[in-house]
Design a protein that fits this description.
The complex is a heterodimer.
Chain A (H helix, E strand, L loop, with lengths): L44 H6 L18 H18 L9 H10 L11 H5 L8 H15 L4 H8 L7 H10 L8 H5 L6 H16 L7 H11 L7 H19 L14 E4 L2 H6 L2 H12 L4 E2 L13 H4 L1 H18 L3 E4 L3 H8 L14 E3 H9 L15 E3 L13 H10 L3 E2 L25 H9 L1 H10 L10 E4 L3 H14 L1 H5 L1 E4 L2 H6 L15
Parallel strand pairs in A: 1-2, 1-3, 3-4, 5-6, 5-7, 7-8
Helix pairs in contact in A: 2-9, 3-9, 5-6, 5-9, 10-15, 11-13, 17-18, 19-21
Chain B lengths: L2 E4 L2 E4 L14 H10 L7 H17 L5 H8 L3 H7 L3 H9 L10
Antiparallel strand pairs in B: 1-2
The chains are: A mainly alpha, B mainly alpha.
Chain lengths: 534, 105
């Protein structure tokens, strides 16, 4: 029996539509047998009593069970009030127009379904259909947010109920979409179901105070308090970067120096701070390239100025604005000419376009993608390269926020075609890419059994297209590199490759773009890319 | 939040099994936390990793860079995964009584 929109509010306490690894579309060998894979971890018994688990058997958000019916009712009332605010121009001045257009103009042609990597990978699970969430929202808006809605809903046979079961499932369901917006790209009239999901997340965060702790409490709140979502304060970040300078200097035999707080510099580089902690070769490679090209650049040590992440993009307009303003204030104080965004996709999206409406007048400091700057440097003739040093299979992962959502497609490709003799595209690629599976904050969310879901379902088509891109030399004896110029994507690929043992079974590793550039530099004598787990 | 028994004490843990009060940590707590990570016996190598994480945390209130951990202990990342199958952040930090690392790490 096909699941109906109204079912989201029915059968409280039961799973709406359970998912298991056996239902997923098959992967190529040696990953084709589900029984050889690590499987999914069960939710531990203590947590399953304390937390709401009523959607598909997976728990991403760790929503606590309500104490009593009174608390349930309070949340339902808050949701109803939030629904009205979402549709009101005084309360939703950021995304009201595209939201209304998406709610009103969908003709239910379902063209978007096959474009969705989550829906496809799941073998066509109804609740993951990109239109399912939007249909639920439409039905709720029609019945509860419009004058005379309840009467009209009865006449139209729209019998969805706004109750605790519906809102708790809908909240969890908002975290089964990576906001990759392939659906919006495919829609013949531009209906954006990714935006609908994001606006629902916003409603939950801003009206009910519901947001995954990795994004909110340990994300934006921690970033605004300590200076970074990683918890690094200015002293720690400077100490860590000093270590990177020394360590990479020893490895490469070059003098690596990272300038801090240089007033009036041409370029303020803002990394995703996760790079510094988990992938130090990336900021190290940036320093080598920028110095070798003679760029006048600096990092900033004022709070938030050294961490480009802005998880507000994924779930909350207020947090988004607070962080974006802070980035610009730091740049203004240092009187830099422009901000260059490091290899981080959502940072690009947040800073380049989404913050546009608050970064007006004096605040409108030029912002540039590092990919564009790197292309200029690589083809400037200032650095000598020997592309034969990169003579191994390389493919390129397109971060959704940089490529599909911003249209920065070619700079990174021109660099790879020049520096990597065995560069090959995956299919599809460019603006038609598949999400890594870690988009919209998923890569940093790992509570309960959510990591298993995101590597098996959200990443499935990505993993398949990576394996296909290397199908000419599938064995582990040939080392292969997936270039992913985005921290969030790298975190997801790390978890994905670790889950399946892709380095051991297929010789596949991953890294950023700058690492490949430095690996090809004539002045760097030892191989920069290490082919080990990182 | 749920309370569980580690090293003979009842300690609050989050849904990922990280203890909430770093001061409640001691070596017996670590041995029991290790069991939740599939580490039945804490060897000298395990302690080397855990003690460094602990030391760094007490000084800076956060986990160290993975590369600092590798360099100080002399283990490659792969070897740290061999010791703690969930890896340095989700495995070793948990056993060392640190909060779960945050941000894009």
């Amino acid at each position: 029996m096909t699941l109906k929109v109204r079912d989201i509010s029915r059968r409280p306490g039961e799973l709406l539509d359970p998912i298991s690894p056996e239902e997923l579309v098959p992967l190529p060998p040696p990953y084709d047998k589900p029984e050889d894979q690590p499987g999914w971890k069960p939710i531990n018994p203590g947590s399953s009593e304390r937390l709401v688990c009523n959607l598909d058997g997976v728990v991403a958000t760790s929503l606590p069970q309500p104490k009593d019916p009174e608390e349930q009712r309070r949340y339902v009332d808050q949701f109803a009030a939030g629904l009205k605010k979402l549709l009101d121009k005084n309360n939703n001045w950021t995304f009201l127009q595209p939201l209304l257009l998406s709610l009103e103009y969908c003709v239910r042609c379902q063209t978007c379904n096959d474009a969705c990597p989550v829906f496809t990978a799941s073998g066509g699970k109804e609740i993951y259909r990109p239109t399912y969430r939007a249909e639920v929202l439409r039905a709720l808006v029609g019945k509860y947010a419009k004058p005379g809605g309840k009467l009209l809903a009865r006449l139209a046979g729209n019998d969805i109920e706004l109750n605790w079961t519906a809102i708790s499932r809908l909240y969890e369901l908002c975290y089964r979409c990576t906001l990759c917006r392939r659906c919006a790209q495919t829609c013949p009239i531009g209906v954006d179901n990714g935006l609908v999901t994001r606006e629902l997340r916003k409603l939950f965060s801003q009206e009910l105070g519901w947001a995954p702790k990795e994004l909110h409490e340990k994300g934006t709140v921690l970033q605004l308090r300590s200076g970074s979502s990683t918890g690094m304060n200015p002293l720690v970040v400077k100490d860590n970067v000093e270590f990177i300078d020394e360590d990479i200097g020893e490895e490469t035999g070059l003098a690596v120096h990272t300038p801090w707080d240089k007033e009036g510099a041409e370029v303020l580089l803002i990394h995703n701070a996760g790079e510094i902690l988990s992938w130090p070769e990336n900021p190290g490679a940036f320093a080598i390239i920028l110095n070798a090209a003679g760029i006048d650049w600096t990092l900033a040590s004022d709070e938030v100025g050294y961490d480009g992440v802005n998880y507000g993009l994924f779930y909350d307009d207020v947090q988004l604005a607070r962080i974006a303003l802070r980035h610009v204030q730091v740049a203004k104080k240092l009187k830099v000419k422009k901000i260059v965004m490091g290899e981080c996709g959502h940072q690009h999206k947040a800073m380049v376009t989404v913050s546009d409406r608050i970064l007006t007048g004096q605040m409108n400091i030029p912002r540039e993608s590092c990919l564009v700057l790197l292309e200029r440097i690589v083809f400037s003739g200032k650095i000598k390269f020997d592309p034969s040093k990169n003579d191994f299979p390389v493919t390129l992962h397109d971060p959704c926020n940089i490529v599909r959502n911003l249209g920065i497609v070619e700079p990174q490709r021109r660099i790879l075609r020049y520096l990597c003799p065995q560069f090959r595209e995956m299919e599809p690629h460019g603006v038609n890419n598949y999400c890594c599976g870690g988009g919209s904050g998923f890569a940093v969310m790992s509570g309960n059994n959510f990591t298993d879901w995101r590597v098996s379902v959200a990443s499935r088509l990505k993993f398949k297209q990576i394996l296909d891109a290397f199908a000419d030399q599938p064995g582990p004896e040939v080392k292969k590199y997936v270039c992913a110029p985005c921290s969030n994507c790298k975190g997801q690929l790390r978890d994905l490759f670790q889950y399946y043992g892709a380095l051991e079974k297929s010789g596949i590793t991953y890294g950023g773009l700058v690492e490949l550039i430095v690996n090809a530099m004539v002045d760097v004598k030892e191989p920069f890319i290490k082919w080990e787990m990182h | 939040m749920e309370k569980k028994e580690f090293g003979g004490k009842l300690i609050e843990v989050d849904e990922d099994g990280f203890i909430q009060d770093p001061d409640a940590w001691d070596e017996n707590v670590a041995r029991d936390l290790a069991k939740t990570e599939g580490v039945e016996e804490m060897t000298e190598d395990h302690w080397k990793v855990v003690n460094y994480l602990r030391e760094y945390y007490l000084q800076y209130q956060m986990a160290p860079m993975i590369r600092k951990l590798c360099k100080t202990t002399g283990f490659k990342l792969k070897e740290i995964y061999d010791l703690f199958p969930s890896g340095p952040a989700k495995g070793a930090c948990k056993v060392a009584g640190l909060p779960k690392p945050t941000g894009c790490v």
